[in-house]
Amino acid sequence: xxxxxxxxxxxxxxxxxxxxxxxxxxxxxxxxxxxxxxxxxxxxxxxxxxxxxxxxxxxxxxxxxxxxxxxxxxxxxxxxxxxxxxxxxxxxxxxxxxxxxxxxxxxxxxxxxxxxxxxxxxxxxxxxxxxxxxxxxxxxxxxxxxxxxxxxxxxxxxxxxxxxxxxxxxxxxxxxxxx
Length: 179
What we know:
By secondary structure, this protein is mainly beta. It has one domain: Beta Barrel (Lipocalin). It starts with 5 loop residues before the first strand and ends with a strand.
């Protein structure tokens, strides 16, 4: 992964930061955040000194349903007026295989910060038609939304709840190497 040495900027137009939650215990709702910015710095001499930062605008949540998105932005869920940003700041990187790594860091949602470790696969690098060197990564992790103070739910007549506690976070990242 020495080809990754340097500083990279996450390309929002070719990156998806998504999530999946169980709905009514029987289906999944998928969504994404459409407004975010991030950087990755890779230290070729000591890969463990590499770092990443990501800032997501909570208001950019998009599940393709405006009523649901409005509810998710409200105080019942993300309380975006009080907590407009979701942040991730890495605290460690471990190479777990020739093209895999674990990125550990602090995830902050609604002013609650907890450590998470996201396993990533490195999909390679390529030079695009505009001369940009790009790197691709894919990763996912499951968090418990209640750990971040997101506790709203509704009981179902048939038992269970409307929204799962466990939320899968999905990262499909295209990063451009800084000149």
